[in-house]
Amino acid sequence: MRMRGLEPPRPYGHTDLNRARLPIPPHPRGERSVPAYAAPNCCRAQAAQATGPQASPWRPGRARYDRRVSTEPLRALLEGAFPDAVELDVIDRTGGGDHFQVVVSAPSLTGLSLVEQHRRVYEALSAPLADGTIHELRIKTKGAT
Fold it and tell me: Which of 11, 39, 61, 109 could in theory staple to 143 by disulfide, Cβ–Cβ 3.0 to 4.6 A?
């Protein structure tokens, strides 16, 4: 066991982890352990030719969907709760269908505190919040005059 203070100073950036140079185990999903984007420049072109520019053995292609489909039910709920809304906008922030931003500007919100305005939006969207359709919700409200 080494004692602090009795050993010579080590160079900058040295840690005890540098001493153990263990072999890297094979990747569980394929023979290559280095993804194409981490390979040296000379190998990237070969990897793109072998697998195609869109394909990747580690990451399947993302499913595409229409963002309007996921925002229409929320918009309908908000339109029912705020029929006098001057501005009503529902934005799918991430494209995953569970992170939304809601902007509501309505005369019925005039004179209410920000907490009460947000409470009314939460009440309008209580069903999708309860069943997990909405994972994250950003709310911007203001009373219109």
Answer: 109
Has this prediction a pTM greater than 0.70?
A: no
Q: What is the pLDDT of residue 108?
A: 94
Mean pLDDT confidence for 113-139: 94
State the residue range of the domain holding 129: 67-143
Q: Are residues 53 and 71 in the same domain?
A: no
Spatial separation of the C-alpha atoms in residues 135 and 128, rounded to whole Å: 9
- What order of strands is seen across the sheet that includes strand 99-106? 87-92, 99-106, 136-143
CA distance 80 to 116: 18
Residue 74 located in a structural domain: yes
How many of the other CB atoms lie within 10 Å of CB of 76? 11
Measured CA to CA, the distance from residue 87 to residue 110 in angstroms comes to 14
